UniProtKB/TrEMBL annotation:
The gene is hycE. The keyword Lyase applies. Keywords: Lyase, Oxidoreductase. PANTHER family: FORMATE HYDROGENLYASE SUBUNIT 5-RELATED, HYDROGENASE-4 COMPONENT G. It comes from the Bacteria. It holds the Pfam family Complex1_49kDa. SUPFAM superfamilies: HydB/Nqo4-like, Nqo5-like. InterPro entries: ComplexI_49kDa-like, NADH_Q_OxRdtase_suD, NADH_quin_OxRdtase_su_C/D-like, NiFe-Hase_large. This is Hydrogenase, component E-formate hydrogenlyase subunit 5. GO terms for molecular function: lyase activity; NAD binding; oxidoreductase activity, acting on NAD(P)H; quinone binding. Residues 258-415 form the NADH-quinone oxidoreductase subunit D domain.
Length: 501
């Protein structure tokens, strides 16, 4: 009997080699893999010559994939196994197909479905008003609701948080996103290929390198483009600089939320220093314009390498000093410890990735499990923490800051030469697939690129780590004080725009 087959991370695959299973077999095998410890990397629908199909990529100790024809209605996988729930809701919204028995069936981003099918959600709302639907409610005379957003006081994207409380205690938090209606995935299928790097590195600006790298690797795999060692090293440095800047910013924000202002101010400044190292590398503080299919657009010459080395040698003791300030303060520890716990079992059911997952005891890190670029030559330590609280999420960031500094120093200690590329997009082969994964600073980023029988993009599927992790924030608020929401929110620091594709 045909079964899910192993696929490489960032390798080319002929679509003919992906098993096309009967739906019942597809469903049974997928449930069996995930119930026995596997995780969902990609699960999406696409149309090919008028036929709607499913493609699924799962993660065990390897990546495995299979597909099938998509029925108009089917018995929900989520009803038996939680990690499928957002993927099924997303496909129902995009293509008008119904997972029968889905336990929490609501829209994800409030887009009209691509096939112009009738609404499968049976909601009495105007589709262009995301908040106009029945939120989950807790019954009782002493229950009250607190609504926050979608418009916020800060310069952030829109998102709505609906708390069901008894007194100050949160019983349930429902998070509603999807207010931007960006349509990024549809746009990726419609633009000329030369626009792909611009779109992917801007779909979540704080993850420029993470998303841009996934796109470049997918194109390189399909077009059989080799990347030289120098470019791989520069890409690795850039991804670690992105991790450093964001983790340092998050640790400073956590200190701000507990009114510990010296580290908040120090790390606010130091974050800017690391952003400026990305500026030194490629002329942009967020790394835009650096990664392109075939390599990088800027070399790491001796002068830049020398400056990087000097600046990191100068910044490292400052970072260590501020970290010591944070984690030696009993007042900080008293606020962080026990706040917003997500246990390992719940984290596994939700499919949490990145620092959020590692803080709950899940050791998964793409850099170690499915290494790309130069990570196969680097030691990436495991960072699981047992407590699953704000303190654990801060500790993971602390450890990764120090580890990223060590990685970058090891990579710039030797001369690096590379062939700078102009960024031209190579032609893509027909009927092919590439799935790429990288460990961005929030966790596993994955892109899936499928071509049709003419070599044009048939489907471009993006998954940001926030797609998994927003429900982790909701779980962290269970049975905790509503005043702890800002601190918990900062400890996850998830992306609205990475979710709202």
């Amino acid at each position: 009997m045909k079964a899910f087959i192993p696929i490489p991370n960032g390798g080319p695959i002929s679509r003919a080699d992906i098993p096309h299973l009967p739906f019942d077999t597809f469903r049974t095998q997928a449930l069996d893999i995930v119930k026995n410890g596997g995780k969902v990397v990609q699960f999406f629908a696409y149309e090919d010559h008028g036929t709607l199909k499913f493609l699924m990529v799962l993660r065990t100790h390897e990546l495995v994939a299979a597909g099938c024809d998509a029925p108009e209605t089917y018995p929900s996988l989520t009803s038996e196994c939680e990690p499928f729930h957002l993927f099924e809701r997303e496909m129902a919204e995009q293509y008008g197909i119904r997972p029968q028995g889905h336990p929490w069936f609501k829209m994800v981003r409030y887009h009209k479905n691509i096939r112009n099918k009738p609404d499968v959600f049976n909601n009495d709302y105007t589709q262009d008003i995301p908040g106009n639907y029945d939120y989950y409610q807790v019954a009782g005379d002493d229950i009250h609701e607190v609504a926050v957003g979608p418009v916020h006081a800060g310069v952030i994207e829109p998102g709505h948080f609906r708390f069901n409380c008894i007194g100050e205690r949160v019983l349930h938090l429902e998070i509603q996103l999807g207010y931007q209606h960006r349509g990024v995935e549809t746009l990726l299928q419609q633009v000329t290929p030369k626009r792909l790097p611009i779109l992917t590195e801007n779909m979540a600006g704080d993850t420029t390198i993470g998303h841009g790298l996934c796109m470049a690797q997918a194109v390189e795999a399909l077009a059989s483009v080799n990347v030289d060692d120098g470019a791989k090293i520069i890409r690795t440095i850039a991804l670690e600089l992105e991790r450093l800047a964001n983790h340092i910013g998050d640790l400073g924000a956590l200190c701000m939320d507990v009114a510990f202002l010296p580290p908040a101010n120090y790390f606010g400044r130091i974050r800017g220093d690391f952003l400026n190292l990305s500026l030194l590398l490629c002329g942009n503080r967020f790394g835009k314009g650096l990664v392109r299919p075939g390599g990088v657009r800027f070399d790491l010459n001796d002068e830049v390498r020398k400056t990087l080395n000097e600046r990191i040698a100068e910044l490292k003791p400052q970072v260590e000093h501020v970290l010591d300030l944070i984690f030696s303060a009993s007042t900080v520890r008293a606020r962080f410890e026990g706040c917003g716990r997500v246990n390992r079992e719940d984290a596994g059911h939700l499919g949490l990735v990145g620092p959020a997952g590692r803080a709950s005891g899940l050791s998964y890190d793409v850099r170690r499990w499915f290494p790309t670029e130069w990570y196969g030559y680097l030691k990436v330590p495991e960072n699981p923490k047992p407590s699953g609280d704000v303190y654990a999420r801060a500790l993971v960031r602390r450890d990764e800051v120090l580890q990223s500094l060590e990685m970058i120093q090891s990579l710039i200690d030797r001369p690096v030469t590379t062939r700078v590329v102009e960024g031209r997009m190579p032609a893509l082969p027909p009927d092919s697939l590439s799935v790429t994964l990288n460990e961005a600073w929030r966790g596993e980023v994955s892109h899936a690129l499928l071509t049709d029988d003419t070599g044009h993009i048939l489907r471009y599927k993006v998954k940001d780590p926030s797609f998994h992790n927003w429900n982790g924030l909701a779980m962290a608020l269970r049975d905790t004080g509503i005043s702890d929401f800002p601190l918990n929110n900062k400890s996850f620091n998830l992306s609205y725009c990475g979710f709202d594709l």
